[in-house]
Each structure stands twice: as C-alpha cells, then as structure tokens.
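Good morning,

Both structures are done.
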Amino acid sequence: MKILVANLGSTSFKYRLFDLPAETQLARGGIDRIGQSASACFVEVGGHRAEETRPIPDHAAAVQICLDSLMHPDWGCLKSAEEVAAIGFKAVFAGNLSGVRIVDDPLLAKMEDLAEIAPAHNPMYARAMRQLRRAFPSIPLVAALETAFHETIPEANRVYAIPYEWKERYEICRWGFHGASHRYLSTRMGQLLGRDDLRVVTCHLGGSNSLCAVRGGKSQANTLGMSPQTGLPHNNRVGDFDPFALPLLMRQTGKPLEQLLQELSSQGGLLGLSGLSPDVRDLEEAAGQGHSRAKLALDAFVASIRQYLGAYMAVLGGADAVVFSGGIGENSRWVRREVCRGMEWAGLELDPAKNEAAKGEARISTDHSRVQAWVLPTNEEIVVARQSVEALAAAGIH
C-alpha cells in the first residue's frame, strides 16, 4: 500500500512516498514558494533527482505536479495516481476531534474554528485539505493529529487549575503536541534497548521545542499545553508566559491584545531574548564572540529544558534514557552538553567524546551511566504513514 505523506507550509509542500507494510521510502520531494511567480520543485526517486522552476498557484496544483513527477515514464515509481491509497498529514489541532481521522467536513470545520490556537498551522492545513478534496476526490485524506499521542496523559497532568467547566465546555487543557515525533523516538528507543517498559524523556528540539515523559510507549506529560506557543522557548515563540502580564502591556504600549499575541508568537523565544536570531547556530557563534544577549537566550533555553527534564524524571520515577532529536537536538553539541551538565545525581553522565562525535543514531552517555543519553533522528513521516494505513483499515477502505 502506497501512502503519500505531506508536510505543509504556508507556501511549501514537502512529501515522502512510502510502500507499506515494508515501510520502504520510494520517493521524496518538495516545492517551495507556492503561489509566487517562480516555484522551486525537486523530486528524488531512487538515485534520480529532478529539479525545475515554474509557477504553482496552490497546494492542489503542487500535489498534481508531485504525482506527475512520480509517474514519469522513465524514472517514476508510480504507474498511475490510483496507486496512492491515501495522503497523510501531520495535522496539528482539532480539540476533542483528536486521534487519526479520515478528513471530512466536521474535522475541517473544527480546525478552522480553533485556528487561533494554532494560527501558523490550522488555517493553512484546512485550506490545503479543502483544495485537495476537490482536486482528488478519489484519494482519501488522513489527518494524524499531533495531540493523539498525548491522549494517555493522566488527567492530573493535563488539567489547568481553572474552573472545571471551562475544560468540559471549552476544551481548555494541556493538549500536548509533537506527538508523531515523540511516538517515533520512544518506539525507536524501545527497539534499540529491546524493552517495552522504558521510562524515556524525549527532547524534540528544533524550530519549535518540547519534552515528553513516556512510560512503556505511552505519553505521561508534554511541555506543550493548550497551544504550540507554550512550554520551552521556541525559535520565535514565547513558550511559557504569565497571561496577567497582558493587561499591563496593553495599557502601557497601547497595543491591542491581537497584536501582542502576534508579537509573542513571532518576535518572542530565542529571537526576542537575543535580539539577533532565532537560530541556535547563529546564537552559539555570537555568544562565542561575546554577544551577551545571545548567551542569555541560550542559557534561558537550556535552563528551561533542564527544569522540565528534572520534573519529568519525577513524573516517571526516574528514567532509563534521555533522547535528543530535531535540528537542535541532533546537531548542537553545546546544548546537549549543557543540558546534561551536573546530572550525575540523577544517574546521567555524558561522555564528552561521544557527544562531540555523534552522528545519526548514537549513544552519548558513558558506558557506566545508569541513565542512557542518545541522539536519534526523528521520523515523523513514517509514523503518519503507519497511522494512515490504520485509519484506512478502521474505515473499511482498501
């Protein structure tokens, strides 16, 4: 069964084509600058790579170009578009319509209604899904909601201390996100260590960031709360923030609530603290040259990770492994080193040489460290592909 997994941006479309159950990746590709005069496209099938630049008006046209490329008579991997059993999406938020679902009108309406919770994701995904349903009515669309993995979190770890009817009536709680990544990392860690009862803290660190406490493959807590704007500082999003500061800011700046929220979600995080860049690579370089606010941003980022790491070890009653993933987790030796510094009290001892040399899947703790530390590249796409197959089976679609 061939599943096309789509990762959407406001002006981009990246995809991978998998053949399941073998989980073979048949192709990958992407299109940037959708809706502009010159969109850049590429596709890789086996050892062949093709690139071109052409105008592409919307995401439906982008998917059609993708399918045309995959059906190329000389090097394509599809004979017809009918071979694609479904298009799977790593969708973000639909409140109590969580889980993995065949895309339908109620789901799209819910995503649009909750757009203010995930403004960078929901409007774009809902719009593209509507386009694709019209353009490809014979191909089922599957939404693997980011909140699905966190449905196992105990209620005490999910609720806010608010009037309980707000949770019941308005769905206000800690939903958690980055579910596909945390699911993959905890599953892969179990495979590597040959155990299904592991206590793992998975650290997804990249453009947006979260930690997850996982016991036996089930989420127990996640740093992201009601929205993807919460928890750790992100590249340009605030993370945890006291809402009672907003009335003061409104009065003293004269800015309306909507503008302040937009600034918190686009000018906060590492960018806001440093005043320089949202990119950890830039901040590490600048901090090394004496840029004090770049150093402050990095220190605040690490401090937040360590606070949650300690808390999640308490949630799990200890840990068997700590996993680093995402663009920062996989590539920043400095962040990994600083997060693990002085953690011997918790049974975690980093091996400096292994940390420096780590590439791909790699253990970076010492041989005698009771808590193992690993670097693992995540693979959210294969999780979505697996979930899409399960959703089709549950819906009786073959």
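Second structure follows.
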Amino acid sequence: MSRYRFLLILVPLTLFLVSAPVVASEPGWSDYRVLLKRYVKNGVRKGDRVTWVDYKGISRDPRWKKVLRRLANYPTHRLKTKKERLAFYINAYNIMTIKLIAKNWPLESIRDIGSIFVPVWKKTAGVVGGKRVSLSDIGQGKLRPLGDLRSYFALACGSASCPDLRRQPYTARHLNRQLDDQARKFLNNRSKGMARKAGKVRVSKLFAWFKKDFNRVGGVKAFVKRYKKLPDKITLRADLPYNWSVNGG
C-alpha cells in the first residue's frame, strides 16, 4: 500500500475517533450529588438517629427537575455490568422515594401515600428509563434479582428506621466500598440496625422481611458477622421496633 493511500484511510478514521461521542455506561449524577450534599444532614427523628432530608428544599431546587428528567430519559440498555445496574437502580429507587414524599408533602409517614388496596410501594412513582415505575418495580423487579444483599441497606425508603440516604450517588466504580459502608453503618445504629441488651441481640425487621434472601448466603447471622463480631452460639431476633415516621421535613 502506498503512503498516499494509507493516509487516505488513516486521516478519516482519526477524525471519526476524535469526533465520535463517548457513550457513558452510567448517567452523570452531578446535580443529584449537589442536592444530596445540600439537603441531607444528620438528625434525630423520635429518638432514632437518621439522615435528615429537606424534602421541600430538594423539590424547589432547579437541579431537581434536571435529575428527574435525566433519570426518565436515560437509555438503560447502556448499563452493561451488574455494578452499573445496581448503582443506577439504587439511585433510581432513592430518587423516586424523594419524589413521592415531596409530591405528597406534608405527611407523617410514606405509608400514608398508599392505601390498603394499593400500598405506596405499588403506586406509580415516576419515570425511569422511559417507563413508568413503582418502588416495587425497582426494588423487587430490578434490584432483588441482582442478588447483592447489601443493596437493602442502600435503599432509603423515607422512614426513620429505613437505611439512611447516603449523601453521595452510588457509582459502579465505588459500589463495593459504598455498599459495605452502608451495611456497616446500619448495623452500628443501635436504634434501628442492631442492638444488644442482656445477652440478647435484636436486629432490624428488614432481616425478617427478606429472610429467604439472607438464607441463601448462610442466614442472617452469617451476613451480620461480616460486619460485626458475634459469639457463634448467640441468637439473633429480627424484631427491633420499626419507626415509619418520615425522615425529614
């Protein structure tokens, strides 16, 4: 091949590679990151230590509409890896929870949004990836099949006894560290994660609700022992009182 013909091929190819748009596998969460830093603080709700969410402040911030629009329009087929899907749908669940509470403010509990016939988890929360979804569609339909039990401690369901809303978006790159940190913090919170008293250990009812899932990894105790030291013979009871009071104002 002559040098002239080689250049005829090389130059257009180079121009294409330079000008071709880079397809991101995850959406940019910059606006969401700012909202979390600005409107999520440490607080207390009826005796429980929580991250306190300023729902009114978030909903009035111009960035909020951008976050919802980006989430609604994001082409989810770009999410190629398990970590990318986990991070995306955890963020989606938490954003939809904020949206539901802010839209129905004021309220005492997120459960007030639903009814006996259609609980809040089954109500349409918003649009994700071009589809109208409920919290159950995301949590049960998208996240649960991925099988990472740590994700349960990342889903902030808008209540004092729910896992805390993390003050940063979840990303595939940092997901392992973020999820381990969430599980550890939840179990270290004696008001809602794990409490010891008179030789007994009580953990969140969350472990009872998803007992079958934890049994697949050896049971609740085996999972808890990843993050907390426990005697082998001790019995765990998943019956800590659950406070459904909304975790913000």
